[in-house]
Amino acid sequence: MANPGAPEGVAPRVIALAGPTASGKTAAAMAVARQQPCEIISVDSALVYRGMDIGTAKPTLAEQAGVPHHLIDIRDPLQAYSAAEFAADARGLITQINARGKLALLVGGTMLYFKALFEGLNEMPPADAGVRAELEAEAAINGWPAMHAALARVDPATAARLGPNDSQRIQRALEVYRLTGKPLSTLHATENIAAQAQLVRPAAVFSLEPQERSWLHSRIAERFDAMLASGFLEEVKALRARGDLHADLPSTRCVGYRQAWELLDQQEANGGAFDMAQLRDKGIFATRQLARRQLTWLRGMQQREVIACDAPDAIAQLLARVEHMA
């Protein structure tokens, strides 16, 4: 597409680096930045929140000082940030970065953000309190795995990328179906014609994906252990101490934070010592589930160029492909 604000016919200089959590995206992005004059646009729904640094594996201050990063620390945890807002912000940043003569490097694992930027999003029906109350009542009786099974009958594509206990997304998908009579996946797949002129066409989408899932699982466990050692629980306690945050916010529902919040609630209700081993088990399991959903999304991105992130020369492969495009 033409770069907004650029001469007609000039395509934006932008590439994307996607991948599941713990696949090495930050290290790979920094390697690209050492090779090419670029600025990084974060494609991560957790990195937007201030005060959530350890549990999100946010790039360090040194990394952010070494290359400009955007869309990090732009929201208070009390605030929401939508895929549509991301797409609008990213489009403006790409224009500015290109105007500075640099490559815009999109890096992250929030696949809905990539979709919003590359394909557009259809207008979804607004939340309906009545329908949500019905779904909550049904879930209280039958459980969310049963609701997930019900979703699979009417929208198998959406159900396939959601875990059986992902109550928030299952509820929303069922809500959309009951309000419109159409599966959420169908609405996502339908092109929003009015927004086509705003879509970004990246020169390439590189995807870091493991050949062996066990490699990624080991990385996830190692990283979660490092987060715990770095004070992740204290970070969550500091967020709770504010007094204005609660467990149903998008920020506190981020993987790791949600599990820590729930366990701290249980400790406050029941007393006793905090079970750090339980936090580790729940956090690692939830992160693995997130990675699985991310890989499912990635398999649907037909334009992606896969790089085996567990290959010893993964970064070298990436740099060679980027240099070939330059």
- Helix-strand makeup class: alpha/beta
Tell me the fraction of residues in β-strands, as a range.
Answer: 5-15%
The shape is: globular
The helicity comes to: 40-55%
Task: Return the string of H and E elements.
Answer: EHEHEHEHHHHHHEHHHHEH
Say how many strands there are: 6
Plain-language structure description:
The protein has 326 residues and is α/β, with parallel strands linked by helices. The chain has 14 helices and six strands. The chain has helices at residues 25-35, 61-66, 83-99, 111-118, 129-142, 144-154, 156-160, 167-180, 184-189, 213-229, 232-241, 257-270, 276-299, 314-325, and strands at residues 14-18, 38-43, 69-70, 103-108, 204-209, 304-308. The chain is globular.
Topology:
Blueprint: E1 14-18, H1 25-35, E2 38-43, H2 61-66, E3 69-70, H3 83-99, E4 103-108, H4 111-118, H5 129-142, H6 144-154, H7 156-160, H8 167-180, H9 184-189, E5 204-209, H10 213-229, H11 232-241, H12 257-270, H13 276-299, E6 304-308, H14 314-325
Parallel strand pairs: 1-4, 1-5, 2-3, 2-4, 5-6
Describe the structure in brief.
With 326 residues, this protein is an alpha/beta fold. The protein is built from 14 helices and six strands.
Overview features:
single chain, 326 residues, alpha/beta, six-stranded parallel sheet, 14 helices, 6 strands, globular, disordered N terminus
